[in-house]
Design goal:
single chain; 76 residues; mainly beta; 6-stranded antiparallel β-sheet; 1 helix
Length: 76
């Protein structure tokens, strides 16, 4: 789906089609910052920041709540 949208001129960096009508659409603002719109039962916006190769932070805001997460990624 991402390549089909790219062929018509819509360039996305993140696309997830989930169960039901759940959709995530994201675009990189810089090399380290991506903004993602999540259309689910409760719509929300997620801001992801790549601190380094192994550390990523995300901040999610919706009308019902907000949260912040820090992820440590490791290659096996």
């Amino acid at each position: 789906a991402k390549s089909a949208l790219s062929n018509v001129g819509v360039k996305l960096d993140h696309l997830v089609l989930g169960a039901g009508n759940s959709v995530e659409v994201g675009k990189k603002l810089t090399d380290k910052i991506m903004i993602i719109y999540i259309n689910d039962e409760v719509s929300s916006v997620k801001l992801q920041y790549d601190y380094s190769k192994h550390i990523e932070g995300s901040f999610t805001v919706s009308p019902e709540s907000s949260s912040g997460d820090i992820f440590y990624k490791r290659d096996f």
